[in-house]
Amino acid sequence: MLILGIETSCDETAAAVVRDGREILSNVVVSQIDIFAEYGGVIPEVAARSHLEVMIPVFEKALSDAKCSWDDIDAIGVTYAPGLLGSLLIGTLTARTLAILHDKPLYAVHHLKSHVYANWITGSLESDMSNCPLFPLLALVVSGGHTQILYMPGHNQFEIIGTTRDDAVGECFDKVAKILGLPYPGGPSIAKAATGDENKYFLPHPKVDGLDFSFSGLKTAVLRAVQKEVGVPISYPSHKLKELLSEQQVRDFAASFQKTAVEILVEKMKLAIEQHPDVKSVVVAGGVSANEKLRKRVSEVFSFDNGVSVYFPALSLSGDNGAMVGAACYYEIQSGVKPVDPYKLNIYPRVSVES
Ligand code: KG4
Ligand code: ZN
Predict the structure, then answer these.
(1) Quick one: average pLDDT of 235-247?
(2) What is the mean pLDDT of the chain?
(3) Which of these, 102, 26, 49, 50, lies nearest to 71 by C-alpha position?
(4) What sign results for the dihedral spanned by CA atoms 77, 83, 85, 87?
(5) Nearest ligand, CA 289
(6) pTM, entire model
(7) Is 351 helix (H, G, I), strand (E, B) or coil?
(8) For residue 177, which atom of ligand 1 is closest to its CA?
(9) Residue 128 pLDDT
(10) Using CA positions, which residue lies closest to atom 16 of ligand 1?
């Protein structure tokens, strides 16, 4: 089954053709990073307009790279939520129009589900199915907007067992990067700069009961530590702090912050595994899953020795892309999910607390 996956939830315009949820035939991603690097963050209105400019060439290229015609496509999957409203509208309207024009079933796919299903993309259908995660599993979803632990007893079954009470970990990477004067997007910049002493600055772990997270305090702890280090009062403008930091201090702060953020995630996952001793796999998903330190620590802590196997998406699939939407859509179809009516408004982006 060939699925065209379309993703426009934030600042990547993406489309891909995926066979049977596991094999990528094409994967086209046009990133707006260059536009937003200048501003230090995403401007939603500009993001939506940029999607509009490239959406058609992007899905056309996905089809031509896959050497597919519309006759070959069995279904269309599109991200409907969560994300930036204007950005989501471009993707969902495109997908609805294509579904009507080419008479294809249309599936509305949740963005975080797609991130999780990036872990099922094995490259080729010939590769052994045992390369795929086993159920029940725990998914650590770490992106720019979300930080969640999901319990998945089977395909397309998700129970949120932990979530952030304030900021997402990716957002925290981005904000700390700003304090340190590192370029947008902050996550990869921090990872690159984190060559200093990770024990140089003590940053406290939040005291949140159970499996929930909190990252707003860590962000403030970095800010206060930087202010203390450079000897200015807390009223000093945070965007000017970077001018007072030496390169070595930036490297030490980046390393100390990254270590703390990763340890907070790992500690909660340890607790989640203790509470769910039946799990066979741990899956890490979302933009922050590209972080090498996180990959290393999760692999060390949750290894085969504990009877748990650990999965990360291919680095090229950890950020937003259409292939993961195609994969998630395939497993939705296999689980009996019905297509949506492209004429109705039922896949308009839904912005709610749950999403
Ligand atoms: O999943 P994603 O591409 O978009 C959302 O769904 O939000 O995640 C983007 C987030 C950003 O906060 C970005 O800074 C972070 O992922 N990120 C990283 C790394 N690469 C991207 N964070 C830490 N280390 C990285 N290597
Ligand atoms: Zn994402």
Answers:
(1) 95
(2) 94
(3) 102
(4) negative
(5) 1
(6) 0.95
(7) coil
(8) 14
(9) 67
(10) 287
